[in-house]
Write a structure and sequence with these properties.
The chain has three helices and seven strands. With 172 residues, the protein is α+β, with helices and mostly antiparallel strands. The longest helix is centred in the last third of the chain and has 30 residues. The termini are far apart.
Length: 172
């Protein structure tokens, strides 16, 4: 049986170090305020161009072990993911794993570092293990990584703009 995947394009050649990125932005707000915004996953759609309808499970919240669901979009397709919080350190770090802590496939992590009058926000994405849902070829998975990197950049820009609007002084 042929799969149409060559050895060099086989998903078997994918390693986690190949499939990771980090994006950073300085935002004019304190680490605690930014942590509160990011850990309220129901707000993700306010700044992410590719995720919305995100909500914690009933009686869950921004703590380690809590689960949430959200809708994602890419190339005209939509799907729902289930994610589990794996780090929740107010004002410092927030992370979740798509698919859960035990068998997840992607980890998203946010780090908050006070810098001057604001905060450097670092958003990272990392493949933990290959799963066919990520794509059928190495090229597919790399394209997903690049798409997510662009999405993270847009998310940080939108978050900074939203914070700027929130703290903009009123006109006289």
């Amino acid at each position: 049986m042929t799969t149409g995947i060559t050895n060099s394009d086989s998903p078997d050649t994918v390693t986690a170090t190949d499939l990771t990125f980090t994006r950073r932005a300085w935002i004019n707000a304190g680490p605690g305020d930014l942590y509160d915004l990011i850990s309220d996953v129901s707000r993700i759609g306010d700044w992410s161009p590719n995720a919305d309808a995100v909500h914690y499970d009933q009686d869950a919240g921004p703590w380690v072990g809590a689960w949430f669901s959200g809708r994602n979009r890419k190339g005209g397709k939509e799907w729902t993911t289930r994610s589990q919080i794996v780090a929740a350190e107010p004002g410092r770090r927030f992370a979740f794993t798509v698919g859960g802590a035990q068998d997840g496939i992607i980890r998203w992590e946010w780090l908050f570092t006070a810098q001057g009058t604001g905060t450097t926000v670092q958003q990272s994405w990392r493949v933990l293990r290959y799963d066919p849902v990520l794509g059928g070829t190495r090229s597919d998975v790399e394209a997903l990584r690049d798409f997510m990197a662009d999405s993270a950049e847009s998310t940080l820009i939108n978050l900074a703009a939203r914070i700027g609007e929130r703290f903009r002084p009123s006109a006289p």
